[in-house]
């Protein structure tokens, strides 16, 4: 158990090194990017792919291979699509630390959205896959929140808990909390099935279904969510409620009982 | 075991019982003996009338706060709309009505209690008194009287002599509760073989729970997870819950060469396999599917099944593999069942075999 | 005739109104005789003696709020479409039970508060009973004459668990429905009768349309009715036996020292009811419990992770989670040991603590009454057993929350389960040995304190350079308190020949009792308390520091 938890700790050093490397190289590429508008219009697509390729060779190729064909350290990216890249890099899961625990976890994203788009465009060019959704697809307009709730309980709650507090999987893996995850990333996760999460392609969970689920999550697990009863204790159900009842409920009552039963201060003997 | 069995030395030594209230004087002969209740010491309130007055004011103030809080409770009930939410740090967004009603009610109650206890602690006499305990068991003469009375009663009833009455009475009293037991029979039907069958049968299409459309093989991608119900089952129908409690289906697609179990491969369609969603342990809808390991975990008790190997149990308290549904493709190209499950789904039971 | 009327009316005119009412009642109920022995009844003051009051008051709070909830709750499983004010469920199909619970939570003013008070009070009720039971256990308050009251209390705890379970199952939400499904699975695991009991309980196949209505009558009538009776009996016995007390100056087995019911205890105990109610109301005002709207209506094909019962069932949940999946098939039958063994263990573990008083009294052979409480250290074997029992219980709770422990401490759920599997066996053994050693250590310290006095922390340097700590001799009050406990001699197997010189057969039970008694009170299992002779020898030899 000790060994495992040690492995799960991500060495900060690796992240720092990566960060420096990326700020250096990525920033340099961004600065060197062509600025002429006319030129950009003409060849923007190929240029974006070109920039993405350069970013890729610096940040991703060591594990996924120079052509994204995969290696012993990382899977092939041919056919994973732009949505997958946008999710993995946008949530900070990629680039991953070199020593992995049971699963790659979200961390601070170190790229600009423009750089992510370039990377996504490059990976998408390797083989067709799901595209990055538009805000129309994941936006709240026309969503049925209640239907989203039903879909969430059918497809998602078994791993992510009733309102997305997350939960355990086998051998140290876990389904992360969905609190504060951008709607776009939730959409992409459903579409692409990152890591051990199964995918929910449009053929089985329609675009409208996904929109409903995102709207439901926004209603029940966002900073503006009202918990009418008060503190929601992490949304974890009876375990945290039981702990609270023992520590604060019974604890407070015992403190009161100590006061009730204690001797009143005696007058000092003169 | 009677008390005679106990050797005398096993019993605790009799202790000296000094009369309580004796003046505390160190006993030269037995320094461990009971010095008696310590003398009563006065509280500040007992000797200082100003302190007592202060206590009185505190108690009265607490009772007054309680009254005000009750007024506040009623005012909150009348004025606060039930759908109003407010932000309270560190609680977050909370129903204003719940917050106001609860706190005013809590304050109104707490202050009554605090007032009463403060009154008792500071102003009521705090002289400790001792009460004698009295023997619980009756003295021998009482016991003798009761036993004699009982014998007399038993004799007068002749229950010992007239054996026929006694026997038939006990018989009647034993039998009469049976009527009550018999009445319980209609609590439910007998199980019969109902646990062995589900709503699946040959030719029933697999309908996607999300879209309510029948599934085609091309809809199901490798790594995806889909849940299905038998065609013709709608949420609005009366027995929907009972049907789904057994028929819920979990559909995944594997690369056919990843399927280790021969029968699983045979019962699949192009790598698409359909397993019962109901855990074989105690019936939770198991569905924590890890698409890279092909393991499925039960969220209730962590039974883990390997869906690439006949859904055999690899961890946890489940006793047997998840039942697989044999599937194929209908003439119209939809996924369909090729029969019911071959074994009962859900938790094991005595008659399962 | 007219004269008596006259005197009566004259008397009536003189006496104060309260007295006249009391006279009226006395003529019909005999209240004066009743009050004679009870009005100034003495109760000792100690905070731990108020744990039982916490339970009683939360039980009363539960009844009061529960009655209010029944005014709005519909115990029906008919499916309806939700049209209430909680938007994320509008248009969903749900049972009337769930629908009416939403109605209480969102559309009845104060309904949510009462629901939350009811549920929080239930959790605290059970927690209070657990701690109260442990207090009684560790101080030996269950000894004669209180064994029956111990059983009453134990029954209240067990019935409280099932009342709680049937209660939180009523809203028919996705979490509680999952718990009911688990119950069905557990019942099905019983050999021979399981399937039948399940079909009779649910009115056919799970979930059917009956269980909410059936649980409702069990939850609001059957179980609380029995509990109310047991609680009244429990209280009557507390009054009848008079309360136990800790050893101290002036306190003996023959008296009870404290303050009278009227006025001090009336004010303190009465006030404590309001304090308990106030604290629970404040918790319910600020802390959400069982948000069924977030869980959604029950559907047997849906589930959420983190599916746990309320804490008092967590121990059973743990047992079922860490049990290996054993299943035996023979002659067309299935023996579901993986579920049935935890079911049996659940009863055995609870039964062990219930029967303990009888086991201990058999081992000690002590038939005398006990009203002075033991300090836990002075009964090392009992304390060790108690801590071992609590350890088994806690391991169950940890097992029941293994998934949350895994996610919050970044562990593997499989490792947590294995840890719990091992510590289910190792934990109580370690706890027993460690507790016993600690108790014996504390006994030794008490002995030293009696013989050598209290360590003052003042270091003195003697003329020849040696440093010593000044020990202050104890007062007689302290000496008495520290030496007031009984110490048993280990029971011996009686002589092999009776008084007539005839060889008698020594029963196996007698040998076992002697063995157990040795383990309880033999050498190394208790530290002999200092005798007056030892004390005198030491104090006269050393002189006073």
UniProtKB/TrEMBL annotation, chain A:
<feature type="binding site" description="covalent">
    <location>
        <position position="63"/>
    </location>
    <ligand>
        <name>heme c 1</name>
    </ligand>
</feature>
<dbReference type="InterPro" id="IPR009056">
    <property type="entry name" value="Cyt_c-like_dom"/>
</dbReference>
<keyword id="KW-0249">Electron transport</keyword>
<keyword id="KW-0812">Transmembrane</keyword>
<feature type="binding site" description="axial binding residue">
    <location>
        <position position="64"/>
    </location>
    <ligand>
        <name>heme c 1</name>
    </ligand>
</feature>
<dbReference type="GO" id="GO:0008121">
    <property type="term" value="F:quinol-cytochrome-c reductase activity"/>
</dbReference>
<feature type="binding site" description="covalent">
    <location>
        <position position="60"/>
    </location>
    <ligand>
        <name>heme c 1</name>
    </ligand>
</feature>
<dbReference type="InterPro" id="IPR050597">
    <property type="entry name" value="Cytochrome_c_Oxidase_Subunit"/>
</dbReference>
<dbReference type="GO" id="GO:0005506">
    <property type="term" value="F:iron ion binding"/>
</dbReference>
<feature type="binding site" description="covalent">
    <location>
        <position position="159"/>
    </location>
    <ligand>
        <name>heme c 2</name>
    </ligand>
</feature>
<keyword id="KW-0408">Iron</keyword>
<feature type="binding site" description="covalent">
    <location>
        <position position="156"/>
    </location>
    <ligand>
        <name>heme c 2</name>
    </ligand>
</feature>
<keyword id="KW-0472">Membrane</keyword>
<keyword id="KW-1133">Transmembrane helix</keyword>
<comment type="subunit">
    <text>The cytochrome bc1 complex is composed of a cytochrome b (QcrB), the Rieske iron-sulfur protein (QcrA) and a diheme cytochrome c (QcrC) subunit.</text>
</comment>
UniProtKB/TrEMBL annotation, chain B:
<keyword id="KW-0411">Iron-sulfur</keyword>
<keyword id="KW-0408">Iron</keyword>
<keyword id="KW-0560">Oxidoreductase</keyword>
<comment type="similarity">
    <text>Belongs to the Rieske iron-sulfur protein family.</text>
</comment>
<dbReference type="InterPro" id="IPR014349">
    <property type="entry name" value="Rieske_Fe-S_prot"/>
</dbReference>
<keyword id="KW-0001">2Fe-2S</keyword>
<dbReference type="GO" id="GO:0005886">
    <property type="term" value="C:plasma membrane"/>
</dbReference>
<comment type="subunit">
    <text>The cytochrome bc1 complex is composed of a cytochrome b (QcrB), the Rieske iron-sulfur protein (QcrA) and a diheme cytochrome c (QcrC) subunit.</text>
</comment>
<keyword id="KW-0679">Respiratory chain</keyword>
<feature type="transmembrane region" description="Helical">
    <location>
        <begin position="164"/>
        <end position="184"/>
    </location>
</feature>
<dbReference type="Pfam" id="PF00355">
    <property type="entry name" value="Rieske"/>
</dbReference>
<keyword id="KW-0249">Electron transport</keyword>
<dbReference type="Pfam" id="PF19297">
    <property type="entry name" value="QcrA_N"/>
</dbReference>
<dbReference type="GO" id="GO:0016705">
    <property type="term" value="F:oxidoreductase activity, acting on paired donors, with incorporation or reduction of molecular oxygen"/>
</dbReference>
<protein>
    <recommendedName>
        <fullName>Cytochrome bc1 complex Rieske iron-sulfur subunit</fullName>
    </recommendedName>
</protein>
UniProtKB/TrEMBL annotation, chain C:
<dbReference type="InterPro" id="IPR027387">
    <property type="entry name" value="Cytb/b6-like_sf"/>
</dbReference>
<feature type="transmembrane region" description="Helical">
    <location>
        <begin position="182"/>
        <end position="203"/>
    </location>
</feature>
<dbReference type="GO" id="GO:0005886">
    <property type="term" value="C:plasma membrane"/>
</dbReference>
<feature type="transmembrane region" description="Helical">
    <location>
        <begin position="215"/>
        <end position="241"/>
    </location>
</feature>
<keyword id="KW-1003">Cell membrane</keyword>
<feature type="transmembrane region" description="Helical">
    <location>
        <begin position="150"/>
        <end position="170"/>
    </location>
</feature>
<keyword id="KW-0479">Metal-binding</keyword>
<feature type="transmembrane region" description="Helical">
    <location>
        <begin position="49"/>
        <end position="73"/>
    </location>
</feature>
<keyword id="KW-0408">Iron</keyword>
<protein>
    <recommendedName>
        <fullName>Cytochrome bc1 complex cytochrome b subunit</fullName>
        <ecNumber>7.1.1.8</ecNumber>
    </recommendedName>
</protein>
<feature type="transmembrane region" description="Helical">
    <location>
        <begin position="330"/>
        <end position="359"/>
    </location>
</feature>
<keyword id="KW-0679">Respiratory chain</keyword>
<keyword id="KW-0812">Transmembrane</keyword>
<feature type="transmembrane region" description="Helical">
    <location>
        <begin position="261"/>
        <end position="285"/>
    </location>
</feature>
<keyword id="KW-0813">Transport</keyword>
């Amino acid at each position: 158990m000790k060994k495992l938890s040690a492995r799960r700790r991500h060495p900060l050093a690796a992240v720092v090194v990566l960060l420096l490397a990326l700020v250096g190289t990525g920033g340099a590429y961004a600065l060197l990017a062509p600025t002429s508008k006319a030129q950009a219009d003409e060849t923007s697509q190929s240029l974006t792919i070109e920039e993405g390729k350069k970013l890729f060779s610096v940040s991703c190729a060591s594990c996924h291979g120079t052509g994204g064909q995969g290696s012993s350290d990382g899977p092939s990216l041919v056919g994973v699509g732009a949505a997958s890249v946008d999710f993995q890099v946008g949530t900070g899961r990629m680039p991953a630390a070199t020593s992995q625990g049971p699963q790659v976890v979200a961390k601070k994203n170190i790229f600009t959205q423009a750089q992510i788009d370039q990377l996504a465009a490059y990976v998408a060019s390797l083989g067709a896959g799901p595209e990055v959704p538009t805000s129309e697809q994941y936006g709240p307009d026309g969503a049925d929140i209640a239907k989203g709730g039903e879909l969430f309980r059918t497809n998602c709650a078994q791993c992510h808990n009733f309102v997305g507090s997350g939960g355990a999987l086998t051998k140290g893996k876990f389904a992360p909390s969905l609190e504060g995850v951008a709607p776009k990333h939730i959409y992409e996760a459903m579409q692409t099935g990152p890591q051990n999460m199964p995918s929910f392609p449009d053929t089985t969970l329609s675009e409208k279904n996904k929109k409903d689920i995102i709207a439901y999550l926004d209603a029940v697990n966002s900073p503006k969510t009202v918990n009418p009863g008060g503190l929601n204790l992490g949304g974890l159900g009876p375990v945290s409620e039981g702990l609270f009842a023992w520590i604060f409920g019974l604890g407070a009552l015992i403190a009161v009982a100590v006061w009730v039963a204690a001797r009143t201060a005696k007058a000092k003997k003169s | 075991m009677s008390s005679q069995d106990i050797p005398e030395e096993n019993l605790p030594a009799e202790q000296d019982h000094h009369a309580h209230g004796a003046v505390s004087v160190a006993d030269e002969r037995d320094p461990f003996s009971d010095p008696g209740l310590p003398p009563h010491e006065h509280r500040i309130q007992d000797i200082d009338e100003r302190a007592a007055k202060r206590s009185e004011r505190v108690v009265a103030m607490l009772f007054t706060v309680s009254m005000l809080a009750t007024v506040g409770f009623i005012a909150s009930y009348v004025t606060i709309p039930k759908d109003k939410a407010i932000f309270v740090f560190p609680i977050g967004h909370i129903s204003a009505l719940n917050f106001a009603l609860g706190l005013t009610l809590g304050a109104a109650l707490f202050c009554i209690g605090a007032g009463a206890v403060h009154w008792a602690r500071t102003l009521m006499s705090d002289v400790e008194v001792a009460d004698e305990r009295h023997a619980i068991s009756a003295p021998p003469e009482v016991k003798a009287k009761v036993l004699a009375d009982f014998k007399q009663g038993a004799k007068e009833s002749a229950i010992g002599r007239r054996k026929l009455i006694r026997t038939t009475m006990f018989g009647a009293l034993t039998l009469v509760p049976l009527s009550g037991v018999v009445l319980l029979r209609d609590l439910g039907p007998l199980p019969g073989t109902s646990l062995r069958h589900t709503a699946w049968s040959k030719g029933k299409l697999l309908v996607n729970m999300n879209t309510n459309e029948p599934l085609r093989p091309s809809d199901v991608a490798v790594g995806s997870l889909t849940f299905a119900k038998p065609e013709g089952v709608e949420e609005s129908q009366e027995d929907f819950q009972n049907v789904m409690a057994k028929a819920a289906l979990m559909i995944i697609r594997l690369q056919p060469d990843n399927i280790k179990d021969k029968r699983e491969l045979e019962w699949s369609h192009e790598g698409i396999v359909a397993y019962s969603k109901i855990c074989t342990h105690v019936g939770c809808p198991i569905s924590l599917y890890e698409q890279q390991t092909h393991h499925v975990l039960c969220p209730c008790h962590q039974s883990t099944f390997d869906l690439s190997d006949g859904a055999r149990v690899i961890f946890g308290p489940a006793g047997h593999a998840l039942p697989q549904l044999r599937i194929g493709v209908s003439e119209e190209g939809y996924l369909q069942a090729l029969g019911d499950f071959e074994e009962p789904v859900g938790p094991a039971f005595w008659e399962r075999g | 005739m007219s004269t008596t009327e006259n005197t009566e009316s004259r008397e009536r005119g003189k006496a104060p109104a309260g007295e006249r009412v009391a006279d009226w009642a006395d003529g019909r109920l005999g209240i004066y005789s009743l009050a004679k022995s009870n009005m100034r009844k003495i109760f000792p003051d100690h905070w731990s003696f108020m744990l039982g009051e916490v339970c009683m008051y939360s039980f009363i709070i539960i009844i009061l709020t529960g009655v209010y909830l029944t005014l709005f709750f519909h115990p029906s499983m008919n499916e309806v479409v939700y049209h209430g004010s909680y938007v994320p469920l509008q248009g969903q199909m749900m049972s009337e039970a769930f629908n009416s619970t939403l109605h209480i939570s969102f559309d009845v003013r104060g309904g949510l508060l009462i629901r939350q008070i009811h549920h929080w009070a239930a959790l605290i009720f059970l927690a209070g009973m657990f701690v109260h039971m442990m207090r009684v256990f560790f101080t030996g308050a269950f000894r004669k004459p209180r064994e029956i009251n111990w059983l009453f209390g134990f029954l209240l705890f067990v019935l409280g668990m099932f009342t709680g379970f049937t209660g939180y199952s009523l809203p028919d939400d996705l979490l509680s429905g999952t718990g009911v499904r688990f119950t069905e699975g557990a019942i099905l695991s019983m050999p021979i009768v399981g399937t039948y009991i399940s079909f009779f309980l649910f009115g056919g196949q799970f979930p059917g349309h009956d269980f909410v209505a059936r649980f409702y009558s069990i939850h609001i009538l059957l179980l609380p009715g029995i509990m109310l009776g047991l609680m009244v009996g429990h209280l009557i016995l507390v009054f009848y036996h008079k309360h136990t007390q800790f050893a101290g100056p002036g306190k003996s087995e023959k008296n009870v020292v404290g303050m009278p019911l009227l006025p001090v205890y009336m004010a303190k105990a009465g006030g404590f009811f309001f304090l308990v109610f106030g604290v629970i109301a404040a918790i319910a005002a600020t802390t959400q419990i069982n948000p069924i709207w977030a869980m959604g209506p029950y559907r047997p094909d849906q589930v959420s992770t983190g599916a746990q019962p309320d804490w008092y069932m967590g121990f059973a949940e743990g047992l079922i989670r860490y049990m290996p999946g054993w299943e035996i098939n023979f002659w067309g039958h299935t023996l579901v040991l993986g579920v049935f063994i935890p079911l049996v263990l659940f009863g055995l573990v609870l039964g062990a603590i219930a029967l303990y008083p009888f086991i201990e009294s058999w081992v000690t052979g002590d038939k005398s009454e006990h009203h002075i409480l033991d300090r836990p250290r002075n009964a090392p074997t009992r304390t060790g057993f108690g801590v071992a029992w609590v350890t088994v219980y806690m391991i169950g709770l940890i097992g029941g929350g293994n998934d949350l422990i895994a996610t919050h401490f970044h562990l593997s759920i499989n490792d947590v389960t294995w840890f719990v599997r091992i510590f289910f066996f190792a934990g109580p053994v370690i706890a027993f040995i460690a507790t016993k050693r600690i108790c014996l250590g504390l006994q030794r310290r008490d002995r030293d304190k009696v013989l050598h006095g209290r360590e003052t922390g003042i270091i003195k340097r003697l003329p020849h350079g040696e440093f010593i700590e000044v020990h202050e001799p104890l007062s007689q009050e302290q000496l008495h308190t520290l030496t007031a406990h009984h110490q048993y001699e280990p029971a011996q197997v009686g002589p092999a020949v009776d008084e007539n010189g005839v060889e008698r057969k020594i029963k196996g039970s007698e040998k076992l009792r002697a063995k157990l008694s040795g383990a309880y009170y033999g050498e190394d299992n208790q530290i002999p308390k200092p005798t007056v002779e030892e004390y005198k020898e030491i104090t006269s030899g050393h002189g006073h520091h």
